[in-house]
Amino acid sequence: MTKAAKVMVPAIKVTRLHKTFNCCKALDGVSLDINPGEMVALIGASGSGKSTLLRHVAGLAVGDSSTQGGSIEVMGRPIQACGRLATDIRATRARIGFVFQQFNLVGRLPVMTNVLTGALGRLPLWRSLTGLFPLEDRERALEALTRVGIHETAWQRASTLSGGQQQRAAIARTLVQRAEIILADEPIASLDPESSRRVMETLATINAEDKTTVVVCLHQVDFAIRYCPRTIALKKGQIVFDGPSAELTPSALRDLYGAEADELSAPIQGSASFITDTALAVAG
Amino acid sequence: MNTAIDTARLSPPPRQSLVKLLAWGVIFATLAWSWSGAEIRPMALITDGANMGTFLADFFPPNFHDWRYYLEEMVITLHIAIWGTALAIVCAIPFGLLCAENVAPAWINQPVRRLMDSCRAINEMVFAMLFVVAVGLGPFAGVLALFVHTTGILAKLFSEAVEAIDPRPVEGIRATGANLLEEIVYGIIPQVMPLWISYSLYRFESNVRSATVVGMVGAGGIGVVLWEIIRGFYFAETCAVMLIIIATVSIIDIVSSRLRKLFI
Ligand SMILES: Nc1ncnc2c1ncn2[C@@H]1O[C@H](COP(=O)(O)OP(=O)(O)OP(=O)(O)O)[C@@H](O)[C@H]1O
Ligand SMILES: [Mg+2]
What we know:
The complex is a heterodimer of chains A (284) and B (264).
Chain A: H1 3-7, E1 12-20, E2 25-34, E3 39-43, H2 50-57, E4 71-74, E5 77-81, E6 84-85, H3 89-93, E7 96-99, H4 111-116, H5 125-130, H6 135-148, H7 163-176, E8 181-184, H8 193-210, E9 213-218, H9 221-227, E10 230-235, E11 238-244, H10 250-257, H11 261-265, H12 267-283
Parallel strand pairs in A: 3-9, 3-10, 7-8, 8-9
Antiparallel strand pairs in A: 1-2, 1-4, 4-5, 5-6, 10-11
Chain B: H1 14-37, H2 42-47, H3 49-59, H4 67-99, H5 106-121, H6 124-135, H7 139-163, H8 167-174, H9 180-214, H10 222-231, H11 235-263
The complex binds adenosine-5'-triphosphate and magnesium ion.
């Protein structure tokens, strides 16, 4: 990073975060800085603590209290410190958009309402409880749905959408939220290659156009290399790599992960062909 | 062919047979023990058979002479059931949410649950008698009796539905910076709505039945009429009223179970 980047307030600052579940240590002294406007991939084998880390950053889980100094700040606002959530956590959460692997939409509500819930954080209580969203927010919601390409499903029940469409609705929710940071936990893990590509493109576009900071957990390194300039790699709750994604060659991965590297790099062959396929389709 | 089978395994192990025998013994002992208390006299059915025959004959043909009056009172009974259920639903929503483990902490939901248990434990007839004393004879006492008892039942059913929801959509709402009330309105209520509607309709059905009975202690409606004509030995009229009750309750049951199917 340049010197100028260093003086600005980091979008996400995690300091010596530990998290112990009854069985094992899910996060083991994680520290990282992410600057505003970055698009960062978080990779690691299953169980390496990616989801746990993201949930802590959004204040959906709290770290260990015993270890001194385990803290998270987002855009200069504290999220949690020493195992306690900040008191104004809701106000800060409203600035963080979260995209879940299982979409976490309310299936029985229309897509439009699901997307409008992004505005809840800034609405007065009487409006949110009566469901009378201001015109401005409804326009914003429709605009967001148009932007992710599913505006024609606006009044369908969310449960009737395909996985890829649901994930794009979840991204539209973060747009209505006017999130300054988007945390995406394996947004493409349950999607087919074509839907995965569209979801990743949508995230990359939002990052480029709105300067939104994006942190995305991925299972496949090739997606990280393709869409994210920077990658952070986790292994057993520790950061083992933090740098340009281009440095993550198969041999570098093998150095980091040993036998587990296959789990992360195996899709490279499969999806390399799909990348060339789409390139051909675009060219042709 | 001649694979030796362990013949001992053809019957269950002796311990199991013993337990079974013991269970039957306990059942028969219980029945025998309550025999005298309940004054069971099967012979009375035979010796008093002729009496019962004439008694039954008194019921027929039913006397529908006052049918307008009966119907009016039946409609009042419906009104009692409607208001008793409606008030109960309104109260059962907050109480049901407070009873749910995934909404309220233990120090709130334990006391609320005990309160709802006591509403449920006491029969609506008992509440009806108490409210007749408190607010006087008439339908309002019936409404209050059904309301208290049904709140206890619905709050429990509602909270069980809330505890069975999928937590992920709620977390999705929470991640947008929503507060607890907004999480409930957007994350929980849409998920439990079909079950809540179905439970409420079911309770309405049962409350129509109960409302005919609470009248017997003076809490208004057809029950009052029934009680008066039974006491006056007007059996043909009693038969007419019972037929009206059966017809009404059946119609309500059919309509409401149709409606309930729409929501599940
Ligand atoms: N709620 C929980 N209770 C107990 N253990 C948990 C809990 N959540 C996560 N863990 C444990 O923490 C470790 C890290 O889990 P985490 O979900 O963060 O991994 P992950 O990197 O997201 O894996 P995946 O790629 O499979 O999603 C795992 O060993 C997991 O078993
Ligand atoms: Mg995960």
